[in-house]
């Protein structure tokens, strides 16, 4: 009998050694997690010559600021402002793989340092030739169930926008030290908007406002609402041409740059 028990435990040990992912695949992740902090590794890889030093204010956030793991899926939020979607995930050999439309979207080293701390380790792309090793630490949190229900239904929280004044940002600053330049927005783009339920329309679950720009109606969709800002983005790609970045950009032979076709509004307090 003792010999049989010995052989049984020897078999179990052999299987565990042959499958080192056993512990990582059984991490109990179900529930809501909020980003507590993030950091970059001090060492920059040798092949990343010329990597800029990350801005002190920027926190690497891996999958996002708010996560909800349930079953084999993970939902991404910026609570209480926006819901980005739900994706499939699986864990193998200590790596979290997230898939979107059956394609691999992202992967992260994953571990739980404590019962209430989730760590995701990853490479963040700074530019074409620069990747920095980073880590994001998440803690459990309890959201308002009604807010989550509204977000998953509407994608964007109307409550975070209604009743507040927003001011149009007219200039942007670049990171190369050059002077800020005035953005060239189309005629009809208001300098300020008072968001109310009367001006918000829906296309399915997506909110937008209809603006008369250059004598045609353009649906501008709300994007990335936050505590002190949100963006408006034109519905159709053809309308990007209304948002030439600089009024005199073509003087320098660069053609028409429409890379800044989003309009950013800030709250009155900023």
Q: Mind explaining what this structure looks like?
A:
This protein is mainly beta. Helix content is 11%, strand content 42%. The chain has three helices and 17 strands. The protein has helices spanning 2-18, 22-25, 145-154, and strands spanning 31-40, 66-70, 73-78, 82-92, 95-100, 103-114, 117-127, 130-140, 165-168, 171-172, 181-182, 192-194, 201-203, 206-213, 216-223, 229-234, 263-267. Strands 1-2-3-4-5-6-7-8 form an eight-stranded antiparallel beta barrel. The longest helix has 17 residues, at 2-18. Residues 1-25 and 246-258 have low confidence and may be disordered.
What is this structure, in a nutshell?
By secondary structure, the chain is mostly beta strands.
Q: Which key terms come to mind for this protein?
A:
seven-stranded antiparallel sheet, disordered N terminus, 270 residues, mainly beta, eight-stranded antiparallel beta barrel, 3 helices
How are the secondary structure elements laid out?
Elements: H1 2-18, H2 22-25, E1 31-40, E2 66-70, E3 73-78, E4 82-92, E5 95-100, E6 103-114, E7 117-127, E8 130-140, H3 145-154, E9 165-168, E10 171-172, E11 181-182, E12 192-194, E13 201-203, E14 206-213, E15 216-223, E16 229-234, E17 263-267
Antiparallel strand pairs: 1-2, 1-8, 2-3, 3-4, 4-5, 5-6, 6-7, 7-8, 9-12, 9-17, 10-11, 13-14, 14-15, 15-16, 16-17
In N-to-C order, the SSE pattern is HHEEEEEEEEHEEEEEEEEE
- The neighbouring-strand order within the major sheet is 1-2-3-4-5-6-7-8
Radius of gyration: 24 Å
Strand content: 35-45%
User: Structural class, judged by helices and strands?
Assistant: mainly beta
Low-confidence stretches: 1-25, 246-258
How many separate helices? 3
End-to-end CA span? 76 Å
The major β-sheet equals: 8 strands, antiparallel, barrel
Annotation, overall tally of beta strands: 17
**Helix fraction bin:** 10-25%
Mean pLDDT across residues? 76
Shape estimate: globular
């Amino acid at each position: 009998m003792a010999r049989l028990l010995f052989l049984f435990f020897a078999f179990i040990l052999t299987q565990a050694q042959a499958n080192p992912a056993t512990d990582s695949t059984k991490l109990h992740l179900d529930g809501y997690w909020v980003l507590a902090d993030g950091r970059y590794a001090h060492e920059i890889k040798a092949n990343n010559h010329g990597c800029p030093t990350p801005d002190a204010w920027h926190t690497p956030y891996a999958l996002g600021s708010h996560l909800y793991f349930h079953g084999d899926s993970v939902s991404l939020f910026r609570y209480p402002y926006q819901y980005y979607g739900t994706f499939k995930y699986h864990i193998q050999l200590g790596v979290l793989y997230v898939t979107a439309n059956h394609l691999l979207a992202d992967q992260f080293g994953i571990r739980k340092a404590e019962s209430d701390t989730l760590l995701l380790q990853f490479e963040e792309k700074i530019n074409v030739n620069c990747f920095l090793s980073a880590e994001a630490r998440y803690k459990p949190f309890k959201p308002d169930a009604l807010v989550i229900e509204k977000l998953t239904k509407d994608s964007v929280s109307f409550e975070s926008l209604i009743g507040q004044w927003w001011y149009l940002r007219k200039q942007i600053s670049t990171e190369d030290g050059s002077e800020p330049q005035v953005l060239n927005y189309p005629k009809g783009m208001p300098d300020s908007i008072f968001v109310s339920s009367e001006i918000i329309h829906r296309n399915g679950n997506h909110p937008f406002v209809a603006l008369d720009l250059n004598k045609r109606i353009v649906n501008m969709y709300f994007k990335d609402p936050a505590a002190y800002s949100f963006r408006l983005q034109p519905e159709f790609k053809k309308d990007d041409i209304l948002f030439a970045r600089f009024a005199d950009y073509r003087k320098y032979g660069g053609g028409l740059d429409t890379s800044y076709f989003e309009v950013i509004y800030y709250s009155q307090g900023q």
